[in-house]
User: What shape does this take?
Amino acid sequence: MHKGKNKSVELSDEQVRLMQTQDKRYITSRRVMELKKVEKLNASLQRLEEAPVNKHKFFTEDEKEFKKFRLAKHLDTPAELIGRKYNRIRNSDLAKIDLTKVVKDVETLKNCEKLASKRYKELMRRTERKDKLATLEEKMRIKQVLQVCEISYLNYTLS
Assistant: This one.
């Protein structure tokens, strides 16, 4: 069995500060990398839950026209899609599409949903990691400031 010798290496204060600075730079670079990855994931995913609230107002001439007003007909969309806030297809476009070619099987849809779920989970993990790195970076910055204050205080008391 191969054992290393226990050598106690003494580091000077300057060497310790240099290593801590390198640690801080590493943490900062990792945080920036995570931030870029989060932004890229955010851009690629449809963030439907964060969609802006739209308020559409439709005006009618009188009460009689208001009672006859049908939103699905006015928007030229199936009534089932009225509650949907995104990608509301029109009846004219729906007539042009052969749905049998669009959706081959249910398995494909399930795989797409799994993939989307996986990517949202990855986004959450990366966001949490980015926040933890930001906290760690701030703690290291505070520690560095305190060390500088301590050194300047010691220099002041010794002089």
In short: Residues 13-158 form one domain.
